[in-house]
Fold each of these.
Amino acid sequence: MPTLSRQLVAQINLAALRHNLDRVRQCVQGAQIMAVVKANAYGHGLLRALPALGEAEGLALMELDAAITLRERHYTRRLLLLEGFFSQEELQEISQHRIAIVVHHRDQVAALEQSELKRSLEVFLKINTGMNRLGVEPDETAELCERLNASSAVAALRLMTHLGQAETKAGAEAPLAIFREACQGLPYPRSIANSAGVLRYGDVGGDIVRPGLMLYGVSPFPNQTAASLNLQPVMSLRSELIAVRDVPEGEYVGYSDIYKTTRPTRIGVIACGYADGYPMTVRNGTPVRVAGKLATIAGRVSMDMITVDITDIPEARVGSPVLLWGEDLPVEEVAHWAGVIPYQLLCGVTARVRFVTTEVGRVDFEL
Ligand SMILES: *Cc1c(COP(=O)(O)O)cnc(C)c1O
């Protein structure tokens, strides 16, 4: 028997990832899918996620080193760098590895015109349609397209924008109209939709869609659950109880006097803390599943441990399985209690956590 270490794992369910990719396919009716895998596939592990995302027509990310790793692992489909390039040296490497780029500023157009590349590039010209982050202005589009089209560095041109409000009540009608007008008469394929765009504007999301969050089984909409969108959570953060104690009424639990028992309380201690990526901004009452049942956080999250009220789960004992988020407890809910967005929790799981990959179903813990 190997020595058992701390039983905290991030379980990555590849069957769920495949299912969610199929959901994208159903929503977009024939558009090509570039699965967004920036930030190490939203914290799930790029190479871990790859077998399930192989069906997508390409992958989009920020990091050139990760894109090169993918090429070295013989990934042959389209790779797109979402923030483009930062220097002439990078441009050479990008061209050598057949990576597509976003061009979001006229200086980058000039840099491309001055470059001498052995192999010309697929370029996505990004247009600012109101998010005011990256992108050329709508009225620059025609001129820059003409220049890019004439440049020997450019093999193929695409038009792109990013929607900053597709998940809000206001929606993305206004930016979509700006984009349509900026692109009028330009005969290039278009890439528009992120997850919220795919789900809400499937028919106008463009020829090449760029979903991220929904692939990982998380709802982009504040008022709609992933389950109601038929998405399955991919990451389940699981641990165990490492201690159980009975605490009398009127005592504090954990650091800094933020939780005082109001009845005789059974407290369970979970091996997981903020050093593992669990948010310490959650409040008393945040849900956690212990032995499959809902318990609530009692006291401040510490670096390595979380204390929960398990008074109403009499069968819970040392070694009982704990689910921090995932399969039966949406990460959206924990993010809500923590005052952050689910993206941040998924990306924030730290190197201390062991990752395991499963194709289907659960890791079986013994009660
Ligand atoms: C992150 C990102 C996406 C994916 O967004 P989700 O909301 O995760 O679907 C798409 N396009 C660009 C440019 C991005 O940066």
Note: Residues 14-28 form the longest helix (15 residues).
Amino acid sequence: MRRIRAVGRVLPFRVNNYVVNELIDWDNVPEDPIFQLTFPQPNMLSEANLSRLLDMDHAGKSIAAVDREVRRIQREMNPHPARQMELNVPVMDGRRLEGLQHKYKETVLVFPRQGQTCHAFCTYCFRWAQFCGIEKLHFACNDPLVLPRYLKAHPEVTDVLFTGGDPMVMRAKVLRPYIDALRGLGTGHPLTIRFGTKALAYWPYRFLTDRDAGELMELFEDIAALGHQPAVMAHFSHDRELETPAVAQAMRRLQSAGVVIRCQGPLVRHVNDDAGTWARMWRRQVRLGAIPYYMFIARNTGPKAYFRVPLAQAYRIFSEAYGQVSGLCRTVRGPSMSATPGKIAVQGIAELLSEKVFVLKFIQGRDPSWVNRVFFARYAADAAWFDELEPALGDKKFFFESGLDRITAEKAMDLVPPPGALSGINDRTGSGTPLRWVH
Ligand SMILES: *Cc1c(COP(=O)(O)O)cnc(C)c1O
Ligand code: SF4
């Protein structure tokens, strides 16, 4: 208990009675996968850091002194992976649109301010630094009218993804203005409106018995009535999350409101690093009328060492699970890394000109011409993220690297103020002079 409490000071911890009573098998703690998924684990910290915290606790050190030590440990754990969001904040009329992210041509992400927390926290979450306040919430959106304005200027966008945290922690009446604002678009720009959520796994009652569950269903129906397609991107980490009567009822209710459910989750050690779990998960999703969508590689942040699954092993797990299921489950893609250049899937391990290589493919690319392109990296048995890979076959660089540098430089140019425009640079809300922001 003392060790778990110490780790819980460094990494965010939150859980609810549904997870505790209906998902965790307390006879199997600590190995239980849902216990691993939600409760801080002693080995998530290095031995040195954990014993320093325990010593401080034992010696009755002041809260301020412990907090300072906690911050130091958090800073060691790569709290700002990739800094992707900054690069992807769209600019319109020279102004940054806070709370939107536009990385891939067809999909805009929206981070509504009230959706930046979750029903329970996943121990592997890459937003951990935001939840424990070490990273500021620069990116939250407060103004529902920003979205239709941006969409009018970007007819190439086909998908809007509400994300968080978890936008399904929001009350329906807070979410409603974002949907009502889309009325201004008219019928000429049909969209898929996606909601990325773990509520089906952590709090299915959100869609059943919460006071505004009915109002939320009306919201989904209204999305359809406006000519858009409502979709839920459901985060599931283990087949047990799909077994309760509540989750099955919640999925049925969403489907009868016209929502299409797709399922995704990361592959993590101690939680779901075996083929059987994934095969059962995909089968169960299909039986509940949902569509398996992505298997992700966990990002390189927080207690990554604890959760790390090497790419080679991830590929074996994926393939073995994929081989056990029917074609209806094989809509799933992966294992995929959401890295700076795009979503990169491990497609195979092969030998080319007597060099062992990873066969990789862009599922999504910052430049659309990269999508579906196959390329190679030198095989490395322990590599667990893209930045641990090197080009294969004697290449010095991956084919997209110069393109990525160009995109990054152009993005930075967008944000450099023209001469004389620096006055009013702190006026974040000003509506007079168009602002340009220094990156
Ligand atoms: C995954 C992702 C999307 C959506 O990609 P799809 O392949 O269309 O699901 C959009 N933006 C970002 C930043 C993403 O990581
Ligand atoms: S539900 Fe998603 S955002 Fe929330 S803690 Fe889990 S991984 Fe993070």
Note: The chain has three domains: 2-77, 84-326, 339-415.
